[in-house]
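Hey, resending since the last one bounced:
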Amino acid sequence: MVKLSVIVPFYNVQQYAPDTLRSLRANARDDFEFILVDDCSRDETPDILERAARELPGAVHLRHEKNGGLATARNTGLDAARGEYLTFLDGDDWLAPGYYTRLVDTIERLGCDFVRTDHVQCTARARSVHRVPHGRRGVVLNPREVILPADRSTSVDYAYAWAGIYHRRLADAGLLHFTDGLRTAEDRPWIWRLHREAESFAAVGLLGVFYRRGVASSLTQIGDVRQLDFIKAFDQVVQETAADRDADELLPKAVRTYCAIISHHLGSIERFEPPVARKLKSMSAAALKRMPQGVLDDALDSMDLQRATRLRRLRRRPVSAEVAA
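The structure tokens again:
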């Protein structure tokens, strides 16, 4: 039986894929599989993955004929995965040797649905440790109970899918798939659903994932229309949370986070192409009008003056029926 399935999407990462694959080799075991999903790359990535399929123990090579984005590529890997446990890695990141064995040992020792881990962020030569924003380590908890408070960073704000490991029962329950077609913020509805519907989790201080920031091909660095998928992602978070049995308690967190993300993008609007910047403003204004208005009032009242003023001004902006829909 396959103990661990590692799902690794790749898209136009020829510069970084060799490092990623070498780190997978340094984590290989007879009972691990590495599902390499090429999301219709147009550079040399497909050739690199074809070689890896022959040389990397446990490699399974899948290729999309049409680019579908990170969420869809991860879903392709999930559908093919056979492991008792599952995890993710992005095609431009890498791992410490032996990390996955330690990760599997951790979730088996704790016996919970999923485990969240710290990671190392790498920007050029700089390195910094980023920690799960939850203070109790190595203790099995109810994930629903750590979504709040609304005004502080919590585990649902630490949305990186690759910073953890997940039991197969979550996939069988439909909790591990992503919203097809989302090209950014795809982890946000996913992590909220996990925390609302899974039964147990733990945060641990295990380090081993090296997250590469500042990659030129990353959507976080590209100011095109795909960045605006964060609005679809957070609309989904708010809609699903509004239908939750604890909606009154959880919606303030969902709405406040959505507002903070909108404000963040507006604060760096110069990085967007001009037509996209205009669309960002109109779509964000429409998003504010879709939110539960009483909850939105409270969220704006709780924010600092600069962000609250920016969002209140945007809230007054007229919105066409087409954009509002």
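Residues 117 and 206 are 6 Å apart (CA to CA).

Sorry for the duplicate.
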